[in-house]
Specification:
Elements: E1 19-23, E2 26-30, H1 43-66, H2 69-76, H3 78-98, H4 102-116, H5 119-130, H6 135-164, H7 166-192
Antiparallel strand pairs: 1-2
């Protein structure tokens, strides 16, 4: 009070019915939401901006690495290339999951494109080299083995992302890739023995 028994109201900014939301770290303010759950104007623009530019850079980086892919495989070898690819991919997924920056999110998509570009071709080449007498059989086995994750992974990612958020879903992919890296490192050590 001011000594006269009059309570002073604290200065509170009048935001009316403004509501704040965050999309991948970007603060969005909706001035007058009509109803709860309504999409914030601009939210879809920020989301589509990340998705559009991120997907474009993912595809471009993927293609740039795949063109000289055979030369890279001959120069580095399949196992070291798979290990490097997995490390770059894991870094991309982790940074995308933790990112609160539009620029970092786009760069993370590019890193994922670079990392995943030669992973599957290297797996197929390694399987064929392991069984030189039956390369077609090895390719068929790997195709069958990788088909289920390639078909179910996007669906599972969508369910996880809708339930727990995209950051959690990207983190889960990074954990899965860490498991794959462990398998590749173990297999590489076993081949040297």
């Amino acid at each position: 009070g001011d000594g006269l028994g009059v309570e002073r109201a604290e200065a509170v900014p009048d935001l009316g019915r403004a509501r704040e939301r965050r999309f991948h770290g970007h603060l969005l303010v909706e001035e007058h939401p009509e109803q709860e759950g309504e999409v914030v104007p601009g939210e879809e623009l920020v989301g589509s901006g990340i998705a559009g530019l991120g997907a474009a850079l993912y595809g471009m980086c993927n293609a740039v690495v795949r063109f000289p892919g055979d030369r890279m495989r001959k120069l580095l070898g399949d196992m070291p290339l798979m290990i490097g690819s997995l490390i770059v991919s894991i870094a991309g997924f982790v940074s995308l999951g933790l990112s609160e920056s539009y620029l970092l999110s786009v760069i993370s998509f590019a890193a994922m494109g670079l990392g995943l570009a030669l992973l599957i071709p290297s797996i197929f080449a390694s399987s064929a080299n392991l069984v030189p007498e039956n390369r077609a059989g090895a390719w068929s086995f790997v195709s069958l083995l990788t088909a289920v994750p390639r078909v179910l992974a996007p669906v599972a990612f969508g369910f996880v992302a809708s339930a727990y958020g995209t950051s959690f879903a990207f983190g889960l992919v990074a954990v899965g890739l860490c498991g794959a890296l462990g398998l590749v490192l173990g297999f590489s050590r076993w081949r040297r023995v």
